[in-house]
Amino acid sequence: MKKYISIFCGVFSILLAVFFMANTVQTQQQEKLAQLQILNRIALDLPHINLANAFLSHSGSEDDIKHYIAQLNQQLKAINLLEVIAIDGISIKAVDARMATNQLVMPSRNITVVFSQAHHYSAAFFIVVILMDVLASVFIVALIRMRDIKISTLSAVSEDSPEQAENIVSIVRIDLNNKTLGLNTNQELAIALANKPLCFYLALIEFCVEHPDVTLNQNKDVPDELIELANKYFYRLTQLGHTIRKRPNFTNSLEKTLSEIRAALDEVLIEHSQLKEIYYPPKAHGEGSRSRLHSYGLSNIKADDIEVIGK
Fold first, then answer.
1. Share of the chain above pLDDT 90, in %
2. Closest by CA position to 72, among listed 104, 103, 48
3. Are strands 172-175 and 110-117 parallel, antiparallel or unpaired?
4. Which of 15, 113, 142, 159 is least buried, going by the fewest C-beta atoms within 10 A?
5. Full 3-state SS string of 15-38
6. 175, burial (CB in 10 Å: exposed 0-12, middle 13-18, buried 19+)
7. Distance (Å, rounded) from C-alpha 116 to C-alpha 26?
8. Using CA atoms, how far apart are residues 113 and 87, in angstroms rounded to an integer?
9. What is the CB neighbour count within 10 angstroms for residue 49?
């Protein structure tokens, strides 16, 4: 909070100083222009002003000059910038060093004219200026505060991202739109799989999630429910616009189908070998009775272990 109070005070001071500096420069320019206009007016009125003239041995009239200055100032009230204090040494007020002096250059002599600033700031003017300055300062501080919050939020997200990434559990992702296998933690990984093994693997996953204790032996027929699921995914591929010649026979060449699935998983899980026990259809080991007891079912897989896009 101290930071923003300091910023507010700094911005407030700078804006106030800039305003009065700009206003002072503008007022000075207007006063110089007004002086020239007043001198021009006095030059036009010289024949009617009873000024002293040593060349003509004329003493002039001080009262007439003061009366002229009073009338001139009455007209100058409209511009509210300057008032004439003295003309050719005849003054209506005491002249001091702060007053501006200018000269009307004549062929025979120069006439000095003294000006005083007539413009004064009112209390209402100062109040309006300060209120506008406060509002502008508050707005600038609010923008800085919003920027700091945004930066802090982005920094927090950046700091948390590595930790969040470490906490994400890797699972297999199957995308039916491009018929690939990958991982949810690696967006660039995409291993293509043919229609038959892709559909069979999806059916095998869904079947084993619903029947975790089932034994699927290659020496026995593939369960009808598993075949129906495989056909369901095959028709889904056709709905997604994939060009397919004919519906595959999921009961034939089961070992080849499983081998293609395992080959794709080898590439997907090359850095995650610990996940093979979840996703890898087990291979048969041994001969005779041992082989007959073998099951290619996924006994460890659960519904949240797989992500299917385009399902």
1. 24
2. 48
3. unpaired
4. 159
5. HHHHHHHHHHHHHHHHHHHHHHHH
6. middle
7. 17
8. 5
9. 19
What single-letter amino acid sits at 300? Answer: N
| 3 state DSSP class of 13 | helix
- Please tell me the distance from the alpha carbon of residue 127 to that of residue 135, in angstroms, as a whole number: 12
Question: Distance between CA 160 and CA 168 in Å, rounded?
Answer: 12
Name 230's Cβ contacts closer than 8 Å, sequence gap at least 6: 199, 200, 202, 203, 250
The C-alpha atoms of residue 7 and residue 108 are separated, in whole angstroms, by 61
Rounded CA separation 304/184 (Å): 12
From the list 107, 93, 98, 100, the residue with the least C-alpha distance to 43 is: 107
The size of the chain, in residues, is 311
Residue 200: pLDDT over 90: yes
Bigger pLDDT: 47 vs 250: 250
Q: What is the DSSP letter of 308?
A: E
Q: Among residues of the chain, what percentage have pLDDT more than 70? A: 89
> Is the torsion defined by CA of 222, 223, 229, 234 positive or negative?
positive
CA contacts within 13 A on the Cβ side of 186 = 17
Q: Per the structure block, which two tokens stand in for 216?
A: 């699927």
pTM score: 0.48
Instruction: With CA atoms as reference, report the closest residue to 83 among 51, 128, 52, 38.
Output: 38
Q: How far apart, in whole angstroms, are the C-alpha atoms of residue 132 and residue 151?
A: 29
pLDDT band at 288 (very low <50, low <70, confident <90, very high): very low
Greatest alpha-carbon span in the chain: 150
How does pLDDT run across 125-172, given as a tens digit for each residue?
778 888 888 898 889 988 888 888 888 887 766 555 555 545 678 899
Crossing angle for the helix pair 195-210 and 224-239, to the nearest 10 degrees: 130
